[in-house]
Write a structure and sequence with these properties.
The chain has 2 domains: about 350 residues, Beta-lactamase; about 90 residues, Lipocalin (Beta Barrel), CATH 2.40.128. Helices cover about 25% and strands about 25% of the residues. Strand 11 and strand 12 form a beta hairpin. GO terms for molecular function: hydrolase activity.
């Protein structure tokens, strides 16, 4: 089916109108469509400001933090090393990093790269320890993991794990003899011709760089006090990029690993493995219905997509690829109700450009559901988060407390969410700042341990 050309001016107007309605200070949108036998279509749009304190205008060449979309880039370099025969996904990471120590010695011996890339290692995922700005930051971070609790047994469930990607970055360093930052530049940024993609703050100074904006209890977005997470989190979430550069990376995966000039940067086998199902999820309602290597996997209107989102301090990014249409869409933002903007905009973009209906947002059922929530009451805890499910006046309430290094980076450390039941072990909680509903899933491991899944993290019940 031949699709009409992408109307960049139209999408620029829609971006500006929808962003204003969601109080998003600045945003950049990119849409890429491959045309077999012809030139690719690339449409770009930008609106708002990069920094409300300075009023610097957002342009299409502005650089935003793409957060955890970085994980797909890190995975791509890992898969290059697999292609080169330097690494096996299913060999113990300790074969490359014999110095690896974890609180569970058995996990330290058996954890593989596949566990890291699919978030199934059980290493507590939200360890944001700052190990300095030096080139040895990932080496030092790997040593820190010796004191990090095992969140769940190896391979027993799925829980979003930033720590695993910092560890994967250290493997890249050991096998390439380069820092993670240098390896990314040499193996991806340069071959793809990316001129506005960075990993370090001193590189951001060379570009029109966005700053994050945060809102306390739904207040007007204000500039965040912290610009970037520690360098030790680099492989999990520190890439900054323009919309066009992100789409150039996405194109690599739409073409099975080839650059626009036909050079192969990644084998077709590895590109396909990244998009194929590798792990099932306890919560299929928040990000995707399954996980690949790096990518999460979604089904919209019967069509298969892959993608990833990213969140840093007041910046959020959204990337979706529809391979059967040769279509990729990225949205980069710097505060406000960015999830609402994403939902509004992508609903229109995918309907008009691909005839795909996006699923309706999660919400409570129209008719109240009666469930016994007593067995879910208690305390659940992991690194950076204390979760308490308590009795409220009108039913169970989830109280979350941010702990550890993250507590100094967010405006509110304690939030309470009244829980509305959907079914026996599934509830929804409403974000007080945006009004969006989020899934809260309770479940047990095969060995009986109880877990709460919220914010795509599995948190064990401790009391």
């Amino acid at each position: 089916m031949t699709r009409p050309p992408i109307d960049a001016a139209h999408w620029g107007r829609r971006l500006a109108a929808l962003a204003a309605g969601r109080r998003v200070p600045g945003a950049s949108l990119g849409i890429l469509r491959l045309r077999p036998g012809g030139e690719d279509e690339l449409a770009e749009a930008a609106c708002g400001v990069l920094n409300r304190d300075t009023g610097v205008e957002t342009t299409t060449d502005s650089v935003f933090q793409i957060g955890s979309i970085t994980k797909v880039w890190t995975t791509t370099v890992v898969m290059q090393l697999v292609d080169e025969g330097l690494l096996s996904l299913d060999a113990p990471v300790a074969e490359v990093l014999p110095e690896l120590r974890l609180t569970d010695p058995d996990t330290a011996k058996r954890v593989t790269m596949r566990h890291l890339l699919t978030h199934t290692s059980g290493i507590d995922g939200d360890v944001f320890t700052d190990t300095g700005r030096g080139d040895d930051c990932l080496e030092k971070y790997t040593a820190v993991l010796a004191d990090v609790a095992q969140n769940h047994p190896l391979g027993a469930t799925w829980s979003y794990c930033n720590s695993g990607f910092s560890l994967a970055g250290r493997v890249i360093e050991r096998l390439t003899g380069r820092t993670w930052d240098a390896a990314m530049r040499e193996r991806l940024f340069a071959p793809l011709g990316l001129r506005r993609t960075i990993t370090l703050p001193e590189e951001a100074l060379l570009h029109r760089a966005a700053v994050g904006h945060v809102s306390a209890a739904g207040a007007e977005p204000a500039r965040a006090a912290v610009w970037q997470l520690p360098r030790s989190v680099g492989p999990a979430g520190l890439i900054g990029s323009s919309a066009a550069d992100v789409l150039a990376f996405a194109r690599l995966h739409l073409t099975g690993g080839r650059t626009p000039g036909g050079e192969r940067l990644l084998s077709g086998t590895s590109a396909a493995a990244m998009a194929a199902e590798q792990a099932q999820l306890p919560d299929t309602r928040t990000l995707g219905d399954s996980w690949g290597l790096g990518w999460f996997r979604l089904t919209w209107d019967g069509r298969r997509l892959i993608g990833h989102d990213g969140s840093t301090i007041g910046q959020n990014a959204y990337l979706r690829l529809l391979p059967d249409e040769g279509l990729a869409v990225v949205l980069l933002t710097n505060g406000g109700d960015t999830d609402g903007l994403y939902e509004d905009l992508y609903r229109e973009v995918f309907a008009e450009l691909a005839g795909v209906a996006t699923p309706p947002p999660l919400r409570p059922p129209d008719e109240p559901v009666a469930v016994d929530a007593e067995r879910h009451l208690g305390v659940y805890e992991r690194a950076s988060s204390l979760l308490e499910v308590v009795r409220g006046a009108d039913g169970p309430v989830l109280r979350t407390t941010v702990t550890g290094p993250l507590a100094s980076m967010v405006p509110d450390t304690v939030t309470e969410y009244p829980l509305a039941p959907v079914e026996e072990d599934l509830f929804v909680a409403r974000d007080p700042g945006t009004g969006h509903w989020m899934a809260v899933t309770f479940y047990s491991l095969p060995t009986g341990e109880r877990y709460l899944h919220f914010g795509v993290r599995a948190t064990p019940k401790v009391a």
